[in-house]
Amino acid sequence: MRVGVLTGGGDCPGLNAVIRGIVRKGVQEHGYDFTGFRDGWRGPLEGDTVRLDIPAVRGILPRGGTILGSSRTNPFSSEGGVRRVQENLAAEGVDALIVIGGEDTLGVAARLHAEIGLKVVGVPKTIDNDLSATDYTFGFDTAVNIATEAIDRLHTTAESHMRVLVVEVMGRHAGWIALHSGLAGGANVILIPEHRFDLDQVCGWVESRFKIRYAPIVVVAEGAMPRDGDMVLKDGTLDSFGHVRLSGIGEWLAAQIEKRTGKEARTTVLGHVQRGGTPSAFDRWLATRFGLHAVDAVRDGDFGKMVALRATDVVRVPIGDATARIKTVDPALYAEAGVFFG
Amino acid sequence: MRVGVLTGGGDCPGLNAVIRGIVRKGVQEHGYDFTGFRDGWRGPLEGDTVRLDIPAVRGILPRGGTILGSSRTNPFSSEGGVRRVQENLAAEGVDALIVIGGEDTLGVAARLHAEIGLKVVGVPKTIDNDLSATDYTFGFDTAVNIATEAIDRLHTTAESHMRVLVVEVMGRHAGWIALHSGLAGGANVILIPEHRFDLDQVCGWVESRFKIRYAPIVVVAEGAMPRDGDMVLKDGTLDSFGHVRLSGIGEWLAAQIEKRTGKEARTTVLGHVQRGGTPSAFDRWLATRFGLHAVDAVRDGDFGKMVALRATDVVRVPIGDATARIKTVDPALYAEAGVFFG
Amino acid sequence: MRVGVLTGGGDCPGLNAVIRGIVRKGVQEHGYDFTGFRDGWRGPLEGDTVRLDIPAVRGILPRGGTILGSSRTNPFSSEGGVRRVQENLAAEGVDALIVIGGEDTLGVAARLHAEIGLKVVGVPKTIDNDLSATDYTFGFDTAVNIATEAIDRLHTTAESHMRVLVVEVMGRHAGWIALHSGLAGGANVILIPEHRFDLDQVCGWVESRFKIRYAPIVVVAEGAMPRDGDMVLKDGTLDSFGHVRLSGIGEWLAAQIEKRTGKEARTTVLGHVQRGGTPSAFDRWLATRFGLHAVDAVRDGDFGKMVALRATDVVRVPIGDATARIKTVDPALYAEAGVFFG
Amino acid sequence: MRVGVLTGGGDCPGLNAVIRGIVRKGVQEHGYDFTGFRDGWRGPLEGDTVRLDIPAVRGILPRGGTILGSSRTNPFSSEGGVRRVQENLAAEGVDALIVIGGEDTLGVAARLHAEIGLKVVGVPKTIDNDLSATDYTFGFDTAVNIATEAIDRLHTTAESHMRVLVVEVMGRHAGWIALHSGLAGGANVILIPEHRFDLDQVCGWVESRFKIRYAPIVVVAEGAMPRDGDMVLKDGTLDSFGHVRLSGIGEWLAAQIEKRTGKEARTTVLGHVQRGGTPSAFDRWLATRFGLHAVDAVRDGDFGKMVALRATDVVRVPIGDATARIKTVDPALYAEAGVFFG
């Protein structure tokens, strides 16, 4: 049995732990051979492979990133891409493929399974924790820890200078990182994409904080937006940036708060720091278990499935369940955090 | 409404986060007053209280330990203890009591609820994660992170000197910390109380590691024991210590490995470092939510219950469910980790 | 003897450790009383004081920020400011003043000492490490550790996606943080204010890195500038920002690298995260010793002096020596790092 | 030019950074070839070598331990050892040797330089910071940070349970780690090998701490001893251990404090955790610079010298200067810390 492995999409702490889990279990318990494909779906598309055996996975457990490389290449987007994937897998003698990725990467896997019967097993990956069908994805806990540590540090600066500090964290479509790190870091305002915020209310919370001689921390997900979204454009700040990826809602918000409350406001955009480096213990544990269970699924011939965490168990669900819609923050859960606002 | 709060048993990162969650929600949303009782059940027993209002919980979220203090005092063990607890609670005008603790502390709460109708709500606490009825307890994730970081550090020393390094972690009756940190840290042997180990097999794993020019890390829970438990006593090492609390199974094991394999072996006992200091983001999040939901239970008059984590939801269960038996590591889960041994 | 204490300028990990050292030694060894002045020179200017005794400094050693607050207020800038400072100090019965601050705050102290004979002792503070007359200032080591950890994390993202990652660190006039964290983090390019960089050379280094299949990390001090400084303005990116404080040279540089090399480039601006939170062990040790020695200077009546680190000794130098000119990175030291570029 | 490199003695965070600095500078600036010798002096003695070129040092900067391995082998202790070292170096075509080690390893280098004219350059290494002729050695700052973080964590446990916590840190002959981490961690007692302690005084400090409702942390270097050293033996605790390396003065001290003050006391022995894992930014910077300057010394033909840190400069001193006597804590410096005792 020869099993292919690829990692696609944005990198995420824990990818290497998954790969190690797969190879250790596959080789030692089932005598499988493995072929690593480079840079997500680009590997099978172009026949770009990398050795993947026990020595190759030695020492990679605590390291961030992925030894296989990653990309957002989609074989369905290139002429004859699907056929080339099939030919390259056949040329390598690959019987089954373990695909580690998010919505897009797994979406390709699901389609190849449905359309050409490709024997795939999926492993969910998104640092934003917004994949349905799994309680948590690896990488998320690491990101939340990094963001929380940053908030801890910003508290002292905020209080020493009595300034508003706005922290922009990841989360384009879902506010999980903002919600968890905001709660854990003792933020005074948490803004998420699922709930359009009212700028007056935000400024009210900020001012109430100053009234008791404390300086507020505002945590904002990169995808959060004010109730009147047009004001972001009308205000012009975002528009003239040119580099939306860095100078986003956090900076706009700090400027607005400063203008309306008269209090000095500063922004910190955590950016890529959140997704690199050594994974937390939880993420290493989850990623390792995902790897082990993906091999079990291959052994059982249970293809078209994805491993997923349900409470403390790793289970299998149809890949399509995970990619059908994203998992957003429930309004009731967000409301729960409201007691700490202001 | 006046609500009492106490924390009992061994300290645990996240206790202060629970207390803060309770007070912030209770005061701001329901207008409750709070009375803190000092040092677990000693507080109600002796009428020793401490102010517990919004200013008292400011800034405590990231701090380990408990501002209320803790003890293992049991009112049922002292003559007229139960009556004195009742009188002191009445004297303070306390209508309901939120009890944060482990098996013993919650056991007292359950009994007082059953026997004298005390209006109690429980919050589970054990750094060992061995309480039934909840998927996780706060403090556990912090302990696992600390142990994992220590294992990371020990790897480099082991490899530089080609030595065996034995790491003794907490876990008297359950091996959760050993299992999680051992998996996350890439240990080559993990020994837990639930499964008596075979010393020959352990030495075999150690030797197979050296054969590929790597130095092994052995993670052992403080409560782990060899198949022939008598040999620990016969060997005499433990017996002559006098201080079993520090010089336990880890040191015995290193001595045995050194004797049998001829490889230098060293022990590190992590001890109290695992339970102190700032909580991880997960533990702050979990502890905060436990605090918020405990207040909900008080508001609903749902006494005799304990908050618990089920997947990503906080639910309520009878306190007795949690204290009836400890939650141990399932043999199948332990077997899963076996692929990494040796 | 009553001694006043104030902290001025930007906050810096270790300020609280200095304050604690002063109070512990002053009270316990010399029986001094202390008066804390709030928010730098604003305190003496407006007579705003805060209690400063043993209980007030309990537990503050590991905390970032300053319990006294800070500001950039300058009594020489306000009509009758100097006279009001004198009056307020007299009203409080303050015999001597310990001033903890950077170039500006200490400059005021030096002038008040020279002009009105104010009995001042200075403690140097700058996170940028750019004060003459001392080998190191506290806060710097913490900032370098935070920046290094961020660079560690960014390496894995850079390599997984084969992207250029530009990290902008503090250092408006001196490149100490960039140089130290760049060396410690294994950066492939380090750019500092003391040395105008050649954009072509930077792009050459970036490309040579990709040739050996590695992704480069560029560390740039916020005050670094290209040889042709006008190009930053001509390019227009900086100009249209409006918020120079956040969207600075790092973002401009990433845009230029992307345009010229065709490689994807991303920027991370570490910002305020570098100056908050718990101080490193070195900074706590240095700050504590500065506090102890400042009290010694008061006891010796050695006013107009500042404590300073020389190798491993704390010595005293005239305050003016520290504020006369900033300490920049020596060209030879910068050249030493050049072996790692590209 | 072919240059040999070896690392001897106990491992230390930063060894790999030195090796990388040597190879990067030697290859890129001078076109040197390098030969790595395995396991300290065992390498040249037995002719055991390892490839040492640019790819071999890639990615090792942040890793603890040493890729060359280490040992305490001494060629002077084995019959014909010196001759064999000479023969093996000649066989490898090695023109000069860079020796990274402590007192013993460098002592061999100095003797070989003096007796047979071996062209050696030394790099000082000791985690204890007790080598003369250099202000700091790499690894020390990392150890102090780890010990300080542990003390931070133990504070919360101490206070929650009102217990004495004794922390045993490294330092057999010099108390640098104890002094720095004790000061940085806010310890209430610091005991070092240079100053025999009075047990009554220690118990007095412990009790005075409890009087103000605080729980004391006692930091003790492994080599610290009571004034009456015989009492340690008479008490019998140490004697019966068999494993002096782990169950040392810390445990004895906790038992004595508990007996005399009646307060519960616990010991944590940090052990090997202090010397493993990723180096701090300072240690990476210092180790890298030591590597670069060792190559400069080879280039200059300046043999028999060792690189050393003086303030912020790296200088060269005769190897003998460093190994003549150990650098201990000055009584005045220790006295300075005394204000925090009790």
UniProtKB/TrEMBL annotation, chains A, B, C, D:
<feature type="binding site">
    <location>
        <position position="10"/>
    </location>
    <ligand>
        <name>diphosphate</name>
    </ligand>
</feature>
<dbReference type="InterPro" id="IPR012003">
    <property type="entry name" value="ATP_PFK_prok-type"/>
</dbReference>
<comment type="subunit">
    <text>Homodimer or homotetramer.</text>
</comment>
<feature type="binding site">
    <location>
        <position position="163"/>
    </location>
    <ligand>
        <name>substrate</name>
    </ligand>
</feature>
<comment type="pathway">
    <text>Carbohydrate degradation; glycolysis; D-glyceraldehyde 3-phosphate and glycerone phosphate from D-glucose: step 3/4.</text>
</comment>
<feature type="binding site">
    <location>
        <position position="103"/>
    </location>
    <ligand>
        <name>Mg(2+)</name>
    </ligand>
</feature>
<keyword id="KW-0479">Metal-binding</keyword>
<comment type="function">
    <text>Catalyzes the phosphorylation of D-fructose 6-phosphate, the first committing step of glycolysis. Uses inorganic phosphate (PPi) as phosphoryl donor instead of ATP like common ATP-dependent phosphofructokinases (ATP-PFKs), which renders the reaction reversible, and can thus function both in glycolysis and gluconeogenesis. Consistently, PPi-PFK can replace the enzymes of both the forward (ATP-PFK) and reverse (fructose-bisphosphatase (FBPase)) reactions.</text>
</comment>
<keyword id="KW-0808">Transferase</keyword>
<feature type="domain" description="Phosphofructokinase">
    <location>
        <begin position="2"/>
        <end position="298"/>
    </location>
</feature>
<feature type="binding site" description="in other chain">
    <location>
        <begin position="272"/>
        <end position="275"/>
    </location>
    <ligand>
        <name>substrate</name>
    </ligand>
</feature>
<dbReference type="InterPro" id="IPR035966">
    <property type="entry name" value="PKF_sf"/>
</dbReference>
<feature type="binding site">
    <location>
        <position position="266"/>
    </location>
    <ligand>
        <name>substrate</name>
    </ligand>
</feature>
<dbReference type="Pfam" id="PF00365">
    <property type="entry name" value="PFK"/>
</dbReference>
<feature type="site" description="Important for catalytic activity; stabilizes the transition state when the phosphoryl donor is PPi">
    <location>
        <position position="125"/>
    </location>
</feature>
<dbReference type="InterPro" id="IPR012829">
    <property type="entry name" value="Phosphofructokinase_III"/>
</dbReference>
<feature type="active site" description="Proton acceptor">
    <location>
        <position position="128"/>
    </location>
</feature>
<keyword id="KW-0418">Kinase</keyword>
<keyword id="KW-0963">Cytoplasm</keyword>
<protein>
    <recommendedName>
        <fullName>Pyrophosphate--fructose 6-phosphate 1-phosphotransferase</fullName>
        <ecNumber>2.7.1.90</ecNumber>
    </recommendedName>
</protein>
<feature type="site" description="Important for catalytic activity and substrate specificity; stabilizes the transition state when the phosphoryl donor is PPi; prevents ATP from binding by mimicking the alpha-phosphate group of ATP">
    <location>
        <position position="104"/>
    </location>
</feature>
<dbReference type="InterPro" id="IPR015912">
    <property type="entry name" value="Phosphofructokinase_CS"/>
</dbReference>
<keyword id="KW-0324">Glycolysis</keyword>
<keyword id="KW-0460">Magnesium</keyword>
<comment type="similarity">
    <text>Belongs to the phosphofructokinase type A (PFKA) family. Mixed-substrate PFK group III subfamily.</text>
</comment>
<dbReference type="InterPro" id="IPR000023">
    <property type="entry name" value="Phosphofructokinase_dom"/>
</dbReference>
<dbReference type="InterPro" id="IPR022953">
    <property type="entry name" value="ATP_PFK"/>
</dbReference>
<feature type="binding site" description="in other chain">
    <location>
        <begin position="126"/>
        <end position="128"/>
    </location>
    <ligand>
        <name>substrate</name>
    </ligand>
</feature>
<feature type="binding site" description="in other chain">
    <location>
        <position position="222"/>
    </location>
    <ligand>
        <name>substrate</name>
    </ligand>
</feature>
<feature type="binding site" description="in other chain">
    <location>
        <begin position="170"/>
        <end position="172"/>
    </location>
    <ligand>
        <name>substrate</name>
    </ligand>
</feature>
